[in-house]
Amino acid sequence: MSLRQLVWTLVSSELDEKLDEHKLHGTFLRSFQRLSSSGRGTVAPPDELIVKHLQGLGRQRGHDRHVLRFQSLRSRLHHSAARPVLALLFHLRGGDRGVVEDVSRPTLKEVRGGWHLASLANQKEISEAKIVRDLLFALQGVSSDCFDSSCEVDPAVLLTRPAWLLCHRILGLAKLHLRLSTDAKEAMGHGLLHQALCEALRKQLQGYYEVLAQLMSCEGLSLRSLWARLLAPMTRLHFLSQLCEGSRGVFGGALSSMVFASGFSGDIVAQDLAKEILRSVVKPLWSMIRAWMTEGELQDPYGEFFVIADASVPLEDLWNRAYSLELEMVPSFISLELARKILLTGKSVNFIRLCCRRTWSPEPLGTSELLPEEEIGASFDLASRVERLSSKTNEHLVKLLMNHFSLGEHALALRRFLLLGQGDFVQSLMDALQEELDIDANKIHKHQLMGILEMALRQSNAQFCSVDVLGRLGIKLRSPERGERGWDVFLLDYSIDSPLHVVFTPNIMQKYDRAFSFLWKLRRVSHALAASWNQHMALQRHLCRDQRDSLDRLSLLETRQTLHRCTLLRHEMHHFVQNVQSYVLEVLDTSWAKLQQGWQKSSDLDEVISQHERYLAAVEEGAFLAKGSEAILSGVSALLSLVLEFCTLQEQACASCFEVAAVEEEESVEAVFQAVRGRPFARSLAECRASLDHLASTFQMKLQLFLRALEDSATV
């Protein structure tokens, strides 16, 4: 509050409110003159007058303590600063006793229009036209005789209360203009959207200057008419000032959101202003969206766009890691789903050009304004344009991957080879690798296995696959652990390059490897059971063909008992393996059918990737490789290991039986009897039967644990 306002408040509060306005204003003028003159004129020192006044009061009341207290307080004050204040307070004590003045009262001249204006400094009359002219200068930020550069009334100018109020209000508009003009010049270095906002402010101020130019040309303009004509510009500048205050520290998409939110008001003028300013502010944003969606370029030197790029990400991770959304920069009038489509379209353009190495020139997004002519809260056609361009770009990318880069064909190759869907190839490969993989894992060599792989391909229908597919198929060996054989480290490999790597990522290929290891072991067990059955049948035919004497019949009976136990246990194991294999194959077939249907409906690359991930997740679940299936996988693996142990045990039993039969064919009965007693044939069969019994009991126990784990997983 200025000194003039303080004095007026003090005078109004101390004097009677019922006084005539002319008397009240006269007292104010005299008080203000006394305070501002700082002792000019023939005025007795205020402290002496106060002491005399207090002494008079003391004689009436019979004590002098008021005088002593005043002198004590006066000693604490600076003399030059205290004198005007003391004079004013003594002047307002309720009377004029003890005051000797030779300062004449200011002349109050009645001016047409009813305003009282005067100059305290030289007692010259100030016309209303002069005040209006100086106010118009102040509204443009120019100082004048009555108002300084900070838009304050010169202390030497005295105005009546109504005139002062009007001037104060008009000068408030001048101060708004000063702040806005300063804010409009601070555009550089704050971002493109902030520069657009400042440009919009300058445009609005240009309209304000046009109003002032019209007022300057008016003749006989009074304070009242000036104030009336400034009401509309004041409303607009008040809104612009609030907008500037709200934009401090805000940039990018958040700035456009702030401007958009300012239009949600019941004031029609504010709505129109917000819509007009927002149309200017979003122009840089619109240019960023257009450049990103059509060219894949981020024209964002100040980091204002809601799509950000990580330059450190390698090209092979472009789709998954190179670009992302900055949620704080997404304008409130753009939904997250629409922002995701904008991000996806630009990623697709870059992926086509950088990873697929193809050219793509989508249709222009358009150059019209971002907002419609309707009210600011209405939906606009940005969503429809983005949807149209996004659909065309993403559809082109999906077709490019499916047709030109044969994504479906390579997925089928992975199913045939890594998921062992090509049965004749798998059978031929296992037959050919039997001897190589039975040895210690440290003794096998990849180049030898590659020759066997090529032979298995030529011996099966896999030879009719495309040259590209067969050229990608290979072998890799996992780092062996102690005691492992070739079966445990053998893996089929499938080479993946760009742009297929976006679907078949290294992490995805590791999941294929895990699925292959489980399915390979399952097929190996099934193959081993089939081989043991063939061996059993060969021995059975050999024994039935020969005729034996009584001693021969004893040996034959022991052999058949051993083979009978092998048959019972093999059937039980085969039943288990066949059920597991049927379940896994059904899962693979069902998941593959769902993948084909999902890919046919996929509209963008993200959907293609997610469909394949769901397919592989179903495969993992069917192969007991999913998270939470560890107990089931452990149980299946233990049971499969017992089956392989049984096949080895039966092979030993059959070898013993063949050896006994061979000896009986060549030697006499006595020699056979001695051989049986002196060589470990009989003991071998007895040990085999004991091992079979132990293996059968262990298999039953493991099977019950496995079934219990299945029940527990079903209840979770």
TrEMBL record:
Domain Gamma tubulin complex component protein N-terminal span(s) in chain numbering: 132-403
Pfam families listed in its UniProt record: GCP_C_terminal, GCP_N_terminal
Residues of the Gamma tubulin complex component C-terminal domain: 407-713
Protein origin, superkingdom: Eukaryota
UniProt subcellular location: Cytoplasm, Cytoskeleton
UniProt-listed InterPro entries: GCP (IPR007259), GCP_C (IPR040457), GCP_C_sf (IPR042241), GCP_N (IPR041470)
Main localization (coarse): cytoplasm
Keyword vocabulary terms for this entry: Cytoplasm, Cytoskeleton, Microtubule
Family: Belongs to the TUBGCP family.
Protein name according to UniProt: Spindle pole body component
Organism: Durusdinium trenchii
